[in-house]
Every structure is written in C-alpha cells, then in structure tokens.
Amino acid sequence: MKKTIYYNGTILTIDDKRPQVESVLVQDGRISKVGSFKEIESLKDDETKLVNLEGKTMLPGFIDSHGHIVGVSQSLIIVNLSDAKSISDVQQMVRDFIDKNHLEKGDWVIGFGYDNTHFEGGEHPTKFDLDKVSSEISIFLSHTSGHISAVNSKVLEIFGYVGENYEVPKGGVVRTVEGTNEPNGVLEENASLDPEKRKLIPKPSIKTLMNCLRKVQELYASFGITTCQDASVDEGMNQLLQGAGQSGVLFLDFVGFAVQNTTMKLLKDEGTPKREYVNHYKLLGGKTWLDGSPQGKTAWLTKPYYEVPEGEPEDYCGYGTQKDDVVTEYFKTLIDNNIQVNVHCNGDAAADQYIRCYREALKQSGNKMDLRPVMVHAQTVREDQLDEMKELGIIPTFFLDHIWYWGDYHYESVLGPERSQHISPIKSALKRGMNYTMHQDAPVKLPNQILAIHNAVNRETQSGRVLGADQRLTVMEALKAVTINAAYQYFEEDTKGSIEEGKVADFVILDKNPLEVDVKQLKTINVLQTIKEDNVVFERK
User: Fold this and answer.
1) Which domains, from first to last, does the chain contain?
2) pLDDT at 126 over 90
C-alpha cells in the first residue's frame, strides 16, 4: 500500500467543518486521515513517503467547470492569433504559418483567438483580407469568442456560400458586402458551427491528436487543474477520448458533454446517466447553445446593445439560435433519461428561453430527480432570473475573466455603463444560497483558475474600472467556486473538491497563501505542484 504524508505547510481543506489542518495522510491515491502532524506521523511505516511542504500552501486540485480541452489541444497545432493587434498582424501570422509548414494548394490553415476589439476600427478580417494571403489554401480563423469566423474565398466555396443565392443553417448569419448578398467572409454562429459545416474541415491524425492531448494536460496541470471538461463532444471526439483513456494517455479526469444532435445516441451507448470515470473519462450530459457572444454582439439580449453593430437597426438585441419547441423537446428528452444539461446563455433573453423551456420540460416530464442543470456564462442574467434559476435548481457557471479582458468594451460599447455593472452577478447567486462556479471557456482564454479567483475578488477592468463592486467575492468564496462547488456541479462532492477523509488525493500546491496575500496580488500566485491521485503531474522548475 502506497502511503504519503504531507506536512509543514498551510493546508486549506475547503471544508467548513475543518478549514485548516496540519497534515494529510494519503493511501493508494485517497485521503486516509487529516489532522495534526503528531497524529498523522504516528501512522507512518518504513515505506511511507514524507512530503515537506516547506511553508507552502496546499489546497484541493482545481476543477474546470466549463471548457473545451480537446479544442485547446488542437490549438497547439493551429495559428494562435491572440497577440494580433491588427488585421495586418493576422495576415502576417497566417503567412508565417504557411511558410513554416510548407503548405500548398488544397491545404488548410486553422487559426484561433483573434480579437477585433483590439483592432483599429474594430473590423473583422474579411475574405478580401485573407485572399491577399492565399486564395488557394483554405483559411479558417475563429474569433476569440468561438462564435464568429473569418474565412477566405476558398472556404466560402467549400461551405457553399457562393454568389448571392445560398442556404444558411438556422441560427447562423453570413455577413455580406454592403448593398449585396455576396458573402464577405465573416460567418456568425451556425454559419460555421453547424455540424455539417464542421465536417468539411479536415481533422488532424489520431497520432497528432494523442500527442496534443498529452501536452494539453500538462498545460492544464500547470494551472493546478486536476479535473477538466470538454463541452463539445461529438461521436468522433467521444471515440478519441475513450481511446486516449484506454491507451493510458489521460492522467487528468475528463468530463464530457455531448453536443445536442448526438447527445442521446452517445449517452444511450454509454448507459444513462454516466457518472463514473472509465480510464479518467466520463460522458456526463448534454450541451446546447441558445445564443452567441456579447463581445461579438451576437448574444441575445432583452434590451438593445449600447452601440449596435454597423448596419443593424437601433433596436438590435442579438438573436437566439433555436425555437422554443426544439429546446423544450431536447430538455424533456434529457430529463426523462435523468441526464444533466449544460446550456450556453450569455444574453438575458437566452436565459429567459432556458428558464421558460426547462420549466415546461419539467412539467411535461414530471421527473423529480436532482439533475443539476447548468447555465454556462450567465453573463447578463438578471436578479429575477436568479430567483427562477434557484427554484429550478439551475447552477450558474460564470466567466469572470470577461471583466478583465472585455470589461471596458462592455462598458463603452456592448452594454453601457449601467448594465455592465451587473455582468456575471456571482455574489447575487451566493446570497441566494445557489451553487456557483467559475470557468475560462478555454480555448477562449487559458484555464487559469488563479486569474479567475483574482477577477472574482477584484472585478477590475484593464483600465482600472470596477464593474459591480457589490458582486465581489471573498477569496474563500472564490476558492470554493473552483473546488467544492465545481465538484458538486459534476455530482462529485463526495469524492472531490475538498481535503477530507475518503476523497481523492487531488491537490495543488501554491507559493503563497491566497487568504493572506493582498487581494490586488492574487493573480501573481504561482502553482508549484499539481498532484493527481497522489502522483505529481506538474512541477514548476
């Protein structure tokens, strides 16, 4: 039996009954005993490993409550456009990628992460910009939100968006050259996210994907994450993750959510509901989208955008992606089969639709089982909606980093000074006694839980504005969002999320105690080690 004793540090358990202990005994990957060092030391034998924390701080491993880890792994082999400050930067980055990889006619360039709000004029790259790079190599670039794409003429041709008469999938928009119906190369929502369109984009080899999965887990572990998520699982990805688990590639826990059109097929194959890991992977529930991105101005609001996009009417509020009857039927199918659903809602109109349709689906089903439905982002959710969400048991998972990365843009253009003060109302959820969690929606942003904690506590934009001072969390409240609360969201509160006897030995060791540093310096805390089931999976050199 493998035994390890951790001692001589600050051990924050995230257990209200016993917030801090001196020492922890782990046996075969599970926490066997917590208590004083004297008490724990008396249980050692000649084979016991002693880990001296040397005054550092140990907490439960962080849990990612929403993200797309396979997408992050694939981003390791695509063009990273997050540092682009102009369309010309984007063009040069794509040219460099083509040259470096010796791409030729018929090949594809996949890019991710450009943010047009950083560009002069705020324009997206168009086919005219990208055709200057190449009109023979397919160029497909995703906006940092993941809800808008910029493509060249070659991709438009492959997608069937040619001339002025073409069909666009429901819930999608093809932007056009002014005064015509000719596509300009900017695609919103299902115009590029529709599964039939995604199938047209070539996939990397299995060997390449397996290598990427190994690397991406190292990245997640470097941020202290021991449980991660992919909320875009389709049949191919499910097979990939099952194969990665069977071949021993996975060393973090992966929680999958199947996209709407494959949810029941995949989960029936698995046996619903699937709440146990097999080789570090479990397919837990279903996922759907009801709107888009606020910074892309495709989120569905009840009141118009503070500054409507060029060419839109003054009452433009974004738009939804599905009709009520379709959403209600999807929810009812999941409820009837005891399956959790995760629903992307950035705008409050989308949140209204979620609440309305889930309530109706519950009424039609009559199922009383605790299914813990999740509202992903809940960025503009209102106080009255939080009351309804609590009644229905809907868990909000908030993207607090929006405040840091796009808070000024929300204040000045997206929502305006008044509404921007209430984005991501996490404290309001806490005051209602609701379970709440936090995420970064990787690859939209890196899964840096320390930064999420910093932003939940400070709520400052890059210009120094505070958005929603009354929504600030304490450090401990923020820590719970990425540990025990996230475990609850996954039905794992009995096995993860706190340092308690019987739970999995998933830990993160930090160089400073988050409860003691100046809150303005929280984001400077470093992860020194990440431990998964008593095995070190990351160590800062």
Assistant:
1) 78-198 (3.10.310.70), 290-473 (3.20.20.140)
2) yes
